[in-house]
Design goal:
By secondary structure, the chain is mainly α. The protein is elongated and about 45 Å long. It has helices spanning 7-26, 36-52, 56-63, 70-79, and strands at 89-91, 97-99. The chain has one domain (7-98).
Length: 103
């Protein structure tokens, strides 16, 4: 199986992490209100962006599935607990990728 590190996959994982974090933050103090969720999502996005060490612009580009640098993609993936290089993939600009030579 070949792992998919496309910008679309990154977009999906970023959105899932933010939703999960926002819901997990709200559960210790139920009930969850409509007002709590957007605040929780905004806080989760900011925390994830800071953990990755990417700019707000780079994060927003990835959030919307737009091309960003390979380095920024790799940092975002690592902040999600996934290291593309461990799978033999070196991310290039936009959604392209290069396979690292094993030799």
């Amino acid at each position: 199986m070949n792992p998919d590190f496309s910008i679309d996959m990154l977009k999906g994982f970023l959105r899932a992490r933010v939703k999960i974090t926002a819901f997990m933050t709200a559960f210790p103090n139920p009930p969850l209100t409509v007002v709590d969720l957007p605040k929780g999502e905004a806080a989760a996005k900011t925390a994830l962006r800071r953990q990755a060490g990417v700019s707000a612009s780079e994060f927003e580009q990835a959030w919307h599935g737009r091309p960003i640098s390979g380095d920024a993609q790799a940092r975002l993936w690592r902040s999600l607990g996934v290291n593309p290089e461990a799978h033999g993939v070196r991310l290039a600009a936009s959604s392209t990728k290069e396979t690292a030579d094993a030799a």
